[in-house]
Design a protein that fits this description.
This protein is an alpha/beta fold. Helix content is 57%, strand content 10%. It folds into 2 domains: 137 residues, Diaminopimelate Epimerase, Chain A, domain 1, CATH 3.10.310.50; 72 residues, no CATH class.
Length: 229
């Protein structure tokens, strides 16, 4: 049975973005690569931290209020059990912490909750790191003039990033891409990711045309089409 390809955007969005890249590159030696992803990281380590923190807090509460939990333990045994020794009580507390850890971990297998509990700064850092990794693989030093630039969108994190090759980074400060990012975010929030990426590409093309105008015989060295991962 053939596997169905998962698509983050429509075919129409693909055409809009691909056409925008081709149009932007007509006036510049710059090469724009566009990538869209559902999510940039699994955040397994975040789930691990939350599970460990909850388990620690649960055991700390038992340690702070031992008599309450001893009474509960005795009630669960019907009042007929012997009083646990110190070592037995330690084992009970550790088992309680382990159960708490497993419960939270299983709860956080639901990825939307895991993502929601991930601090914004961590999400931004992971998106940036993923963008840089993809840039190094598919864009960096792939053009003669080191004029490649990557537009990366990570949908679940609601984040995007632009990473430029050496020649572009030397002339264009990161904040110059602000108009492109603003146009992108505005349209994605409105539910139009293809239009957002296309407008961002158009804005990026204007910047590139100013600093790297089209030269005679410059080839199209990188793929124009929108890439989904």
């Amino acid at each position: 049975m053939a596997l169905r390809k998962v698509s983050h955007v429509s075919e129409a969005d693909h055409r809009i973005v691909t056409d925008a890249v081709a149009a932007a590159e007509r006036d510049t030696d710059g090469e724009i690569v566009t990538i869209i992803a559902a999510q940039s990281d699994s955040y397994d380590d975040v789930a691990l931290v939350w599970a460990s923190l909850c388990a620690f807090l649960a055991m700390s509460i038992v340690a702070l209020f031992p008599e309450c939990f001893r009474a509960l333990y005795d009630a669960l045994r019907g009042g007929w059990g012997h009083q646990p020794t110190a070592n037995e009580w330690l084992g009970i507390v550790l088992a309680f912490g382990a159960i708490k850890w497993i419960g939270v971990w299983l709860f956080l297998l639901w990825r939307p909750l895991r993502l929601f509990l991930t601090p914004r700064a961590i999400r931004a850092g992971r998106v940036r790191a993923r963008a840089i990794d993809l840039f190094k693989v598919g864009t960096e030093a792939k053009t003669m003039g080191r004029t490649g630039v990557l537009l990366y969108v990570s949908l679940n994190e609601h984040r995007a990033d632009i990473v430029a090759d050496e020649a572009i980074a030397a002339k264009v400060a990161p904040e110059i891409w602000g108009d492109a990012m603003a146009a992108l975010i505005e349209r994605i929030r409105a539910g139009h990711p293809g239009e957002g990426m296309a407008e961002a590409v158009r804005q990026m093309g204007l910047v590139l045309a100013e600093h790297f105008p089209k030269s005679e015989g410059n080839p199209n060295e990188l793929c124009d089409r929108l890439i989904e991962i």
